[in-house]
Amino acid sequence: MLINPFDTDERRAFRDTLRNFMDKEIVPNAFEWDEAGHVPWAVHEKFGALGLWGFGIDEKYGGHGFDDPFMRLDASIEISRCGVGGIGAAIGGRGISLDPIQRLANEDIRTQVLPEIIAGRVGSSLAITEPSGGSDVARMKTTAKLDGDHWVLNGSKTYITGGMESDYFVVGARTGGKGLAGISLFFVEAGTPGFSRTPLGKKMGWWASNQATLYFDDMRVPAANLMGQQDYGFLQIVQNFNYERLTLAGIALGMMEAALEDSISWAQQRETFGKPLIKHQVIRHKIADMSSKIDALRSLLWVLCATIESGTMPVAELCKAKVFATKALEFVASEAMQILGGAGYLRGNRVESIYRDVKVIAIGGGSEEIMRDLAVRQMGL
Fold it and tell me: What sections of the chain are H helices per DSSP?
């Protein structure tokens, strides 16, 4: 096992607390909740009590008053090790909306909603993706037009994680011309007249993530709910996606660790041709290859966290790390399925669930193709 040279007592304590909580509260129920497509709301509040969403948030809003990329990474790893991606998605979906609310919403909104969201008492979501375009945000069709002291929004969003249960949304809408420099952000409360939502249809994975399609039909929001500068809302939150990429790479790492653990356990118990599966060279080589990719990804993410902590946001490297993570996850999940054989194909085990969730990690938060292109552009090429 590699030793993190950047580890501290505080980080170890946070990691151990979260792992113990996952083992006692989440793992025994994860598959049942995923099959039901719902995580009990009391679980959100328990995660809130652990301080899961307080990083980078001022203490006066219920946050920690400090940030720590290593603790963010550890949280994504430990939660995803349960092997049921929909649990982490349902719980963590609010995370990407918090920084925009703190930086761009007015003080009344910040004071009213941030403590509730961070404590897990209510949910929130970022609503950018539309049915007509995912990664191509510049084609956004949802519109917002000023009418007196209100903005009137029309359009729709989809694949909004946590969207069926969130109370608050940060919504992107076009207020200006074409392109990214014509998009503004608005704070929207569920229940606003003209707001409606429907659940996504049956998904390959992430069953408990309660993802939604949102609809805005002449929905009026107060002018004060405009977040940040008009027409530059999306450009003001692009840095927000760097932590999302780190989180998704951490999720991939946690899934890989779980798949390797279960592969080794199965190979030690299963006997074929007169000896344990683990004693067959072909299986030992698979485990060596799987573990080497885990070591490589873990080391890369530690260095990226240290870079962030030093004050530099390594945008290109985070993009490349997400691609590396998802390609490594694809390999490890496939090899784990081969090692378990038919047993891995049965519902109710981590390898089966992880195998189904590979693609949502590879696509969500910026597809591999988009990440490669952005990385090269950030390299100045």
Answer: 9-21, 30-36, 41-49, 69-80, 85-92, 95-104, 107-118, 240-269, 281-309, 315-340, 350-363, 368-378
